[in-house]
């Protein structure tokens, strides 16, 4: 059995993305992203959206999302999790889209500091 220090070190490595789990996935706590697959593979980022926004994304009427989530890059998968009106309770509905463009507040005049527009 591992000692407490070994367990803490292993958890720290996993949370910093320097250690893979048994499926080859890496989690990065600072950006809340999950990298899957071999050779860098695919990065997945989860975001919470309202029922109305989820419906717009699912039907294809909405092609972008404004978020303050860091670490989203072109080519990532963004997973939209639908939530109830309280903003926290997830409905279980999920939808994955591939990010094709990201523009930060530094690139878009009038966008609030720390926010980005993600196109998919």
Characterise the protein shown here:
The structure is a single chain. This protein has about 120 residues and is an alpha+beta fold. It has one domain: Archaeosine Trna-guanine Transglycosylase, Chain: A, domain 4 (Roll), CATH 2.30.130.30. The chain is about 20% helix and about 35% strand. It has two helices and eight strands. The chain has helices spanning about 5-15, 50-60, and strands at about 25-30, 35, 40-50, 65, 75-85, 90-100, 100-105, 115-120. The strands form two sheets. The chain has a five-stranded mixed beta sheet. Strands 4-8-7 form a three-stranded antiparallel beta sheet, with no helix packed on it. The chain is globular, with a radius of gyration of 17 Å. The protein starts with a helix and ends with a strand.
